[in-house]
Structure formats: C-alpha cells, structure tokens
Write a structure and sequence with these properties.
2 domains; Pnp Oxidase, Chain A; alpha+beta; single chain; globular
Length: 241
C-alpha cells in the first residue's frame, strides 16, 4: 500500500514554505529557571504580598516596574480593550491609577462594566501578577493629592488632551496644548488644579494571582480569591500551569 508519504526533503521544503508565510514562527524557547514559589512563602494579604514583590522589582534594574496592562470591557458588545498605564499608589484596599475619565475609551468601558483587570510583568524575576477586581472612583480630593505632585507640563496636558478623540494631525494637538499653556501662563504650578475630567480610580481586587515562571512551562501559580470586596477573608489556591 502506497501512502505517498513525503520524503524528508519534501517535508523540509514544506516547512520552509510554511515559515515564509508567517510573520512569526517558532521563536526560540525561553526557559524560566530563576525562582520558585510555594504556599509557605506567601503572607496573609495579597496586597502585602504584592508590595513585597514590587519592592524587590524596585530595588532591581527592572525597567519601569510600575508599568501595568490595564484591561477593560465594554458592554453589551463584550469588546475588550487593554493599554499600559502606571501604578501610582497602592493602599490597603487596592491599586490606584490616574487618567482621563471624560473622553477616553476606558471611561466608556467602565461606565458600562465595573470589572477590570491589571497584569504586571517583571522580566528580571520571571514573574507576573494578575489582578481581577472592581473599579472604584476616587474623590476629587484624592485625585488632587496626586495631581499636585505632577510636573507642570503633565498638569497642562491633562487639561488639554481630548483623550482618544480623533485628531487631524499632531499639529492640532500642539495648538490645543499651546492654548492651554497660554491660559495658565500667570499661574504657579500649585495654582493649576486637577481638571474635573481627570482623576484616579482604585481597582479593588477579587482575585490576585502570583505567577512564578518555572522550567518546562510548569509554572507556580498561587491565587488569592474572595467572594466579595467587603470581606477580608482570602482563600489561596494553586492553579495548574
């Protein structure tokens, strides 16, 4: 019986052709070999455990350890949107980020869906932290506290940018910013107050997963979970890699 199996040469040629048709094909396998994570290493609170890992990242040469992927989902479409933002504060209740909450895409998502997620990646430690939680708005006073320490240019930029709106070109944005700079020309940095459309949110976690890369993709995944943001009782479970 002849199954017409390809010769090695024919097979090699077909693989080469397949590679040519792909923009990315079989990149070299990266191995995670630096650390492990066990249950007895964790502290009682995921916020405190995050703080511990974050401090380690800060003390290393990890570039911008506060950078984080912030994901939101618009309802009823279910369309998911992600972007990098910077974690600016951490308190006992959750993770704080600051941005435009008037015209931005994430504002429209949060209006329809209170759930959001954060994903941190620290390559130097081969670690990830994944947060799922509920969005809470900060008060104007809380937002002003952080806004007050921003550089002058960032303060004016918060007033000027109609975030996520379509622009004709860069020159259009430059004109908007120049007009705002002129408007605030006589004010000191401290006199430029937080715009109503700009401010902070807190992602209050329902689940926080600590992911430590391991050899052969058999990663350590330990997740803190709770049923409601009103309870401080966390269950820690190990997840299959």
């Amino acid at each position: 019986m002849n199954l017409d199996l390809p010769t090695d040469k024919t097979y090699d040629e077909s693989v080469k052709t397949e590679k040519k048709d792909k923009l990315v094909f079989a990149p070299e396998t990266y191995q995670y070999t630096l650390y492990t994570l066990s249950e007895d290493e964790l502290v009682n609170s995921p916020i405190e455990q995050f703080d511990k890992w974050f401090e380690e990242a800060l003390k290393s040469d990890e570039p911008i350890p506060e950078s984080v992927v912030f994901s939101t989902c618009s309802l009823p479409s279910g369309r998911v949107s992600s972007r990098y933002v910077l974690l600016k504060e951490l308190d006992k209740r959750g993770f704080l980020i600051f941005s435009n909450w008037d015209t931005s895409k994430k504002e429209k998502d949060v209006e329809t869906n209170k759930y959001a997620s954060l994903t941190f990646l620290w390559k130097k430690f081969q670690r990830q932290v994944r947060v799922e939680g509920i969005v809470e708005r900060l008060t104007y006073e809380e937002s002003q506290e952080y806004y007050g320490v921003r550089p002058r240019g960032s303060k004016i930029g918060a007033w000027a940018s109609p975030q996520s709106k379509v622009l004709k070109n860069r020159e259009e944005l430059d004109k908007i910013v120049a007009a705002k700079e002129k408007e605030f020309e006589g004010l000191t940095d401290d006199e430029i107050k937080c715009p109503p459309k700009w401010g902070g949110i807190r992602i209050v976690p329902l689940e926080v997963e600590f992911w430590q890369g391991r050899q052969s993709r058999l990663h350590d995944r330990l997740s803190y979970r709770r049923e409601s943001i009103e309870t401080d009782e966390w269950e820690v479970v190990r997840l299959a890699p």
